[in-house]
Amino acid sequence: MTYPRIVGIAGSFRRPSKTRSLVESIGAEVGRATPIDFVVHDLVEIGQGLGGAFSRTQLTPDAARVLRDIETADALIVGTPVFKGSYTGLFKHLFDLVDPDALRDVPVLLTATGGGLRHALVVEHHLRPLFGFFEAFTIPTAVYASESNFIDGTLVDSAVRARASAAAAQLASVLGQRAERAPSTAPVRLAAAR
Question: Is 10 in contact with 79 (CB distance < 8 Å)?
């Protein structure tokens, strides 16, 4: 049996990363609700191979693999640290290289992390329009977490955890509905002619 493949993208430049921790915890929450195949990539893995590429053909093999994972995912959980009120430039550059038709109707759960609450609307004012361009299906509940919501890189704030759980439940529900509507892959048996 094949499970939905969810790709997590954390626009992080370092490890440990609060953004990656948030993406991973939401992915784990989705996995508790429904069986999934989940992988997370962050920019620290591919930064140099991505930043020097002006086109897809110039990507390093690792960066090209991450791009392929994004374009072939059944769903995405994306997160970015907030710098100067928006997503990181390298995060945007990654999605600039994504085929414009690849994410059409793909469920995307939006997350971001920042230093304080004044950046909380980045998910609505920057991330949602970005994925609207791709005609992706953005999950209604987005998750923003600030520095004070983490202790030692782990999300501990109960309100943010509840919001993350709600978003994860929405994504799991969408995946479940899509699985129910998917055509059966079982072979069709035809009656023998008499």
Answer: yes
Which H, E and C letters describe 97-122, residue by residue? CCCCCCCCCCEEEEEEEECCHHHCCH
For residue range 27-84, what is the model confidence (pLDDT) as tens digits? 999 999 999 999 999 999 999 899 999 999 999 999 999 999 999 999 999 999 998 8
Alpha carbon 178 to chain centroid, angstroms? 18
Distance CA(88)–CA(105), nearest Å, equals 24
Give CA 99 to chain center in angstroms. 16
Question: Which token pair is 159?
Answer: 């309100």
Local structure of 148: helix, strand or coil: helix
Query: Counting beta carbons within 10 angstroms of the beta carbon of residue 75, is it exposed (0 to 12), middle (13 to 18) or buried (19 or more)?
Result: buried
Mean pLDDT of 101-128: 93
Q: Which of 189, 139, 122, 179 is nearest to 1 (CA)?
A: 179
Cα–Cα distance, 171 to 143 (Å, whole number): 13
| Closest to 2 in 3D by CA, of 184, 189, 136, 187 | 184
Q: Are 139 and 170 in contact (CB under 8 A)?
A: yes
